[in-house]
Every structure is written in structure tokens, then in C-alpha cells.
Design a protein that fits this description.
Length: 421
């Protein structure tokens, strides 16, 4: 297919098959010929990492790719970057492509960080003059000034990521591919990377991002592809893709837990939310309350194995999708918990302080590093009455808890009400 615009990426019915074990080797072929069950043996050694995947990304757009471990996300990026070739289907990529898809890819362990900047830049299509022109920016972004003349074999995994992303983010690529390797970096560097990707996207770079960080996917990607066991399950609006993913995780986890199979604990499919309930006074269920009343969100969960120090986020969303409030367990420094088996988590908004409207509670449980979504769910709708006057559209969504006072002009300052203003 002839692509007209630089920065366009297209998959058309792409599949990728791997042969496991000894299949594909001379020894394996001879063994198969000598075996009476060679057909069955070969069929058991075949793995379809991807099957019939199609999507198109226009220049300057961003596509998120999500799914459980082993769903084919990294395989998709490897095919795009020509690290491997598809078994069937066609892949079209137009323009200069930069990829950060594997920790330390393109680095030589015996070379210094500086030498690897030139090596990695050359692999990505930069001339030596272009690399030299960008060198100071690359080193500054990586934060590795002290170690730039050290052989990278002495680098930590986080230092590898810093240097690799710094090079990839400065090659003026038309297309940038980023895998979950950014989860290795510290929080400050991840923030810097997110800001840089946002800058590149706004400047017209086509971005394809694989991540378990649903906040990052929501922030950067308007469209998202959901993969499951190598097959496309959803392609479209990012919020709809994430909601589909969460329902899929919920179904998979409940199916495995009920079957007594704790082996699902490998990865992020170890916990799911069974209910998000809303409670008012005296722990009674509610569907309506006043702005000055308390709201308790009760989250019931089931975990296949203990989750140590997860972060629980409870957001209150208006019916038009506007985020109105957010409670994050990490903001309570003395809170340390382990979620295991079955249990409940309670978050109390006292008072709720929302203006009149229709709302729901949106719950996310993420790992202790705040990079991987473990599970999520939403409550049913509830209604708030703020008893205020005037047009509701003029009142925003927050009712501050304040007190009014009035004093005549001749009252001396020492008789004024106490105030911190």
C-alpha cells in the first residue's frame, strides 16, 4: 500500500508465529522426521504471538497498546521496528523511526555511555555530526553526566533506560515506539519522560506506547489497542479500551480464583474488585445525599496472592466525565497494608462537598510504584443536592466548607473574627 504522509503506520492482518523448543533447528527437524507423532509434536511447539492484528496510525497521532503479560504487545513493537518479520500480513511504516523496546538494545557493554550515544544514534539513523550537535541535550536529559565516560556494563537497569530514552527522544524521529521499559526508571525520570513524550506528540511525532500505566495511556493516547492472547479485542477510544480491559481482567481473575488456581498470580492479574458500594450515615446504602453529608465508598476485593502496599485511588466523576475529586491512599504516610484473600477498603468523604449533579465513584488499585494498574471498577450513579440558588452551571462542582461573617466599617481590628487571611 502506498502511504502518502510521513509518520504513518499501518498493520494489515498481521500474524506472528514462533516455534518453541527444538523446532526450526536441524536437530529438531531430524527428530520430527524420525518420530511417529511428528505432526502432533510440531503442532504443540507452535505459538501464535499475534493473530490477525490490524490498525492504522495517522501522522502525529498516538496509539496506546495494552493487555496482560504475554498478550503480544512487545511483539507488535518488534515487528514495527523490523527486529522480527511477520509470518503473514503486511506492515507499512513511513518515515524515520526511533524505538526503545528492550533494555539496553543497541548498547555495547564494553563501550562507555558516550560511545554508546554515538553507536545508538547511528543505529537510529543519525549522522555523527547530528549526534554531536545534540550531545549536550542528550547527556543533560539522561542525568548521567558523572557516568557518561563509564562502560555501560557497570550501569544499573535504570541508567540503561535513562541513556536509551535520552537518545531515542532526541533523534527528531517521525515515529517513536516506547515499551514498558520506562517503568524501571525512578518517579522523577518517568515524569520527565512523560513530559518529553507529550512535547513530541504535540510537535507532530507519531507515538506508539506500550504500558501498564493506565494514567499515562489516558494522558498521551486518544486511541488504544487492547490485545489478549495475541488477538485484538478492542481498538478505539482509550477510555472504552481501558474499561474493556478491566472487565476482561475481572472476568479472567474471577474465573481462575473460583477454579482454585493461584498460578494467575504471575503478573498484574492477581486481584480484582468484586463490588464498589456507596454508603451514607450508619453505613446504609445510598443513591442520593446532600453536599454537607458524608459519603463512604466501600471497595470489596478478592486477591489470589498478597499485594504489599498497593496504592488505592478513589475518584468522584460527574456524569459528563469531569473528574471532581480524588482520594489517594499514598497521601496517608502511616498507612501500610497488605491485601490478600477477600476484604474491604473504605474511603470516606466527610462531607462530600459536591454541587448538585449525578456522580459515580471510580476506583483504581495500582502497585506500590504507581506504574502498573492491578484492577479497577466503578460504582453505580448517585445524586447530590447542594440546596443552592441560581443556575447549577455557574457553580462548578465543589462546595467549599466555609463560614460567612459581616462587620460594620467602624469595628476596630482587635474585634474582628479570627482569620488566617
Amino acid at each position: 500500500m502506498n502511504l502518502q504522509s510521513t509518520g504513518t503506520v499501518e498493520f494489515q492482518q498481521v500474524s506472528k508465529r514462533y516455534r518453541l523448543g527444538t523446532s526450526g533447528t536441524l536437530r529438531g527437524a531430524i527428530s520430527a522426521l524420525l518420530s511417529r507423532n511428528s505432526y502432533d509434536s510440531n503442532s504443540q511447539q507452535t505459538l501464535w504471538a499475534l493473530r490477525d492484528v490490524s490498525f492504522r496510525v495517522e501522522p502525529g497521532d498516538s496509539l496506546g497498546v495494552i493487555g496482560p503479560n504475554g498478550s503480544g504487545k512487545t511483539t507488535t513493537l518488534k515487528l514495527l521496528s523490523s527486529v522480527s518479520q511477520p509470518t503473514s500480513g503486511t506492515i507499512s511504516v513511513r518515515g524515520r523511526l526511533a524505538a526503545l523496546i528492550e533494555l539496553g538494545a543497541g548498547f555495547h557493554p564494553e563501550l562507555t555511555g558516550l560511545e554508546n550515544v554515538y553507536l545508538n544514534g547511528a543505529i537510529l539513523g543519525l549522522s555523527r555530526r547530528e549526534i554531536s550537535h545534540k550531545l549536550d541535550d542528550i547527556i543533560e536529559f539522561s542525568g548521567l553526566e558523572r557516568f557518561i565516560n563509564t562502560p555501560v556494563k557497570r550501569y544499573s537497569s535504570g541508567m540503561y533506560v535513562r541513556l536509551g530514552f535520552a537518545v531515542a527522544a532526541h533523534v527528531d524521529a517521525d515515529i517513536l515506539l516506547i515499551d514498558e521499559v520506562l517503568a524501571v526508571g525512578d518517579a522523577e525520570f518517568r515524569r520527565k519522560c512523560s513530559e518529553r513524550m507529550e512535547e513530541l506528540r504535540k510537535s507532530g511525532t507519531t507515538l506508539i506506547l506500550v504500558s501498564h500505566n493506565m494514567y499515562q495511556i489516558r494522558r498521551l493516547c486518544k486511541k488504544t489497542l487492547l490485545l489478549f492472547k495475541g488477538e485484538p479485542r478492542f481498538l478505539g477510544d482509550t477510555d472504552d479500551a481501558i474499561n474493556t480491559y478491566e472487565r476482561l481482567l475481572h472476568f479472567s481473575a474471577s474465573e481462575n480464583v473460583s477454579a482454585g488456581a493461584p498460578q494467575i498470580a504471575a503478573g498484574h492479574e492477581t486481584i480484582f474488585i468484586t463490588e464498589v458500594a456507596l454508603q451514607g450515615q450508619a453505613a446504609q446504602p445510598l443513591s442520593q445525599l446532600r453536599y454537607d453529608e458524608a459519603l463512604t465508598v466501600r471497595i470489596r476485593y478478592r486477591a489470589a496472592q498478597p499485594i504489599v502496599n498497593p496504592i488505592v485511588k478513589v475518584g468522584l466523576l460527574r456524569s459528563d466525565g469531569t473528574p471532581c475529586a480524588m482520594a489517594v491512599s499514598a497521601y496517608q504516610p502511616d498507612l501500610a497494608w497488605t491485601l490478600g484473600g477477600e476484604g474491604s477498603i473504605l474511603a470516606r468523604f466527610d462531607p462530600v462537598q459536591l454541587t448538585s449533579g449525578k456522580y459515580c465513584a471510580d476506583v483504581r488499585i495500582v502497585d506500590s510504584t504507581d506504574t502498573m494498574l492491578l484492577t479497577g471498577a466503578r460504582s453505580g450513579w448517585f445524586y447530590v443536592d447542594d440546596l443552592a440558588f441560581g443556575d447549577a452551571a455557574d457553580r462548578g462542582f465543589f462546595m467549599p466548607n466555609l463560614h460567612w461573617s459581616h462587620m460594620p466599617a467602624n469595628v476596630p481590628p482587635e474585634r474582628m473574627p479570627d482569620s488566617n487571611l
